[in-house]
Amino acid sequence: MSRGIRLTNEELEHIRLFESLTGTMVRDCIIDSKFDRIIFVIKEGEAGIAIGKGGKNIALLEKLTGKKYEIVEFSDDPVQLIKNALKPANVKEVRITKKPDGSTIAVVSVDNKDKGIAIGKNGRNAEKIRFLAKRYFQISNVLIV
Hints:
By secondary structure, the chain is an alpha/beta fold. Helix content is 39%, strand content 26%. It folds into 2 domains: 9-73, 2-Layer Sandwich (GMP Synthetase, Chain A, domain 3); 78-144, GMP Synthetase, Chain A, domain 3, CATH 3.30.300.
């Protein structure tokens, strides 16, 4: 768990259920009521195990709780975390820039054919990336171009 991140009892309950069903370790849990979903941040390389063959683990979780789930593999590298959060979109480049006012932004270039995937319906994927980038790396904004 990253320093300074506090989880609610509800988030901890979701983590316990997820870990017991999948056998993977959750690093973070975000309940996103705006888009009615729960986002799990897990150890890099464990997405396949967490999702399960044919998506069976996620399907079971959704059936048990009535909630939608998303999984992002964590990385200590902000560029890689952004790429992981955008999967399956093909990310060409991620540039992280410090602005004169001291804030940091990330500009993400994706294939034109994948722009819709990267942004997501009603901006849900873009919002997820912005949230994770700010939560872990103090990146104030993420632009998808």
